[in-house]
Specification:
Blueprint lengths: L1 H8 L21 H16 L1
Length: 47
């Protein structure tokens, strides 16, 4: 939360995804698939 507030305060663009009720390993349901698809899309668009 502090990092997000600082980025907003300094007008720095960023993308953020929150996965509520998930542990650090991002297990459960289709959560991991969603995460890796978003990471792949980011790489395709930015590299």
């Amino acid at each position: 939360m502090e990092m997000t507030n600082s980025l907003v305060k300094h007008n720095i663009p960023f993308e953020q995804f929150a996965y509520p009720d998930r542990n650090h390993g991002i297990y459960g349901g289709s959560t991991r698939l969603h995460l890796f698809e978003m990471m792949t899309r980011w790489l395709e668009e930015n590299l």
